[in-house]
Specification:
Layout lengths: L4 E5 L3 H13 L3 E5 L2 H10 L4 E5 L7 H11 L4 E6 L4 H9 L4 E4 L4 H32 L9 H13 L6 E4 L6 H10 L8 E5 L5 H9 L16 H4 L4 E5 L6 H13 L1 E2 L8 E2 L3 E6 L3 H6 L5 H7 L2 E4 L10 H16 L5 E2 L1 H9 L5 H15 L4 E2 L6 H4 L2 H9 L15 H14 L4 H8 L3 H11 L9
Parallel strand pairs: 1-2, 1-3, 3-4, 4-5, 6-11, 6-12, 7-8, 8-11, 13-14
Antiparallel strand pairs: 9-10
Helix pairs in contact: 2-3, 10-12, 13-15, 14-18, 18-20, 19-20
């Protein structure tokens, strides 16, 4: 069984050949080089998992090979070998980035153990990289569903500001996805490999918020037995996201203004100033201008945080995105739960379009999750939706507008043609009246789309393939 690729470098031909034979017998794919020049040529031509190199070579030494690998191929693991090893040489090798330093003559078990540890570390690093890619997918723009023009402008803005250090204020009603936008900005910035730290300012009492953000020293207050770094320190080099910033008390607003201007602060109980390189993103569902006028939010802080404002529209103002969002949550839940369902029935989508969605996208996600978990058929039908949604004022008004119409949501088809028409029209315009793309995104076939357009009075002559 192939266990990995090795480059073995040693100027002693007998040692080189015997070690190579033994390593091949252990299942490794081995290339050999007797000196620095042929070793560099091999490194330039091929990718190796691990380099095993003697410190002493006829030309140059193993430390040069180590430095070359660090500069040109940092993901390659280097293990140095020496028959004349000293503590100083070993320390220089480890400081230079060597994974291990082994003394000759080598003991088979010692070499095998070092290689096993090296490959185990590589596996962990590979898994971490895969996890980062998953996070990029999960929190990047790919995970933010929206074809509405306002959402497209927000996506463009994220691309424009992600790599700047400018403070960003995200505003919008509760449930519109402010945290998701903040993470997307971080994931699209050069800080993506550093920490993203989220703090819900409204969830912490005033006495703890300052310590949480800026840390404290031992003895700063009762119970502070040790020094504790704050969230700004944890986010150094990365991004800190301060949610519900409108709830920050006046004393905190003063300290926060200084951090945003000078990127420095003192932990609670300390007079030692700390500096950080932290990108700050803030969010609120409050109107900060109203809060300023009421004296609850400092005017100078408002002007400082409102450098770039991303305003997220409520779901009721981007209702054309509802089918996409509903389908996204539906597929995600089916994948997570293993349920085999076909999708949302057209009457269900029309019914959802009539709701005012005070809880916005978060409310829609919860509704779809409940419907998937409790649904018994292959389609999500109106009966699978929560009763409070079926009896919402908008649905009830629609039901009462037509004689004999049930308010339960089971026979709302004719009353819901208005929002259904708007959804289809928005999607057609977004896709330049492309029938295939529009039908696919609406989750219906092309013939159904054509029939609906005719029934709803939409000009089917504009359709393109």
């Amino acid at each position: 069984m192939q266990r990995g690729s090795l480059l073995l470098i040693d100027d002693d031909r007998q040692v080189l050949e015997s070690m190579a034979d033994w390593l091949r017998g252990q299942g490794y794919k081995v290339d050999t080089a007797a000196d620095r020049a042929p070793a560099i040529q091999l490194l330039d031509r091929k990718n190796f998992d691990v380099v095993l190199c003697d410190v002493r070579l006829r030309e140059g030494d193993g430390l040069e090979i180590l430095r070359y690998c660090r500069d040109k191929m940092p993901h390659t693991t280097v293990i140095l070998l020496s028959g004349y090893g000293t503590v100083e040489t070993a320390m220089e090798a480890i400081r230079g980035g060597a994974f291990d330093f082994l003394s000759k003559p080598l003991i088979d078990q010692e070499l095998e153990m070092s290689l096993q540890r090296a490959f185990s570390q590589r596996k962990v690093l590979a898994e971490n990289q895969a996890l980062k890619k998953q996070l990029d997918l999960r929190y990047g723009l790919e995970n933010i569903v929206g074809h509405d023009n306002r959402m497209q402008r927000i996506f463009d803005m994220i691309e424009s500001v992600a790599d700047t250090k400018a403070t960003i204020l995200i505003t919008g009603e509760s449930g519109t996805g402010k945290s998701l936008i903040a993470r997307a900005i971080h994931r699209h910035s050069a800080r993506r490999n550093k920490a993203f730290v989220e703090v819900a300012c409204g969830a912490l009492p005033e006495t703890l918020l300052e310590s949480e953000l800026f840390g404290h020293v031992a003895g700063a207050f009762t119970g502070a037995n040790t020094d504790k770094p704050g969230k700004f320190t944890h986010a150094d080099g990365g991004t800190i996201f301060l949610d519900e910033i409108g709830t920050a008390p006046a004393s905190m607003q003063v300290k926060l203004l200084r951090v945003l201007q000078e990127f420095e602060f003192e932990p609670v109980g300390s007079n030692k100033t700390q500096r950080v390189d932290t990108r700050v993103i803030l969010a609120t569902n409050e109107n900060l201008q109203t809060a300023v006028a009421a004296g609850r939010f400092r005017q100078d802080l408002y002007y400082r945080v409102n450098v770039i404002n991303i305003e997220l529209p409520p779901l009721r103002e981007r209702i054309g995105d509802l089918p996409l969002l509903a389908d996204y949550f539906f597929k995600k839940l089916c994948e997570e739960t293993g349920k085999k369902m076909r999708g949302l029935h057209e009457e269900t989508l029309a019914l959802l379009a009539r709701h005012s969605w005070p809880g916005n996208v978060r409310e829609l996600q919860n509704v779809i999750e409940r419907a998937v978990l409790l649904g018994k058929g292959e389609w999500i039908v109106p009966a699978d939706l929560p009763q409070q949604l079926l009896h919402s004022p908008a649905i009830t008004a629609a039901a009462q507008a037509l004689p004999g119409l049930s308010a339960s949501g089971h026979s709302l088809k004719s009353s819901l043609q208005g929002p259904e028409r708007q959804i289809i029209l928005d999607m057609l315009e977004l896709n330049n009246w492309n029938r295939n793309l529009t039908a696919e995104q609406l989750g219906i076939n092309r013939t159904t789309l054509y029939k609906k357009m005719k029934k709803l009075g939409l000009d089917e002559s504009k359709l393109t393939e």
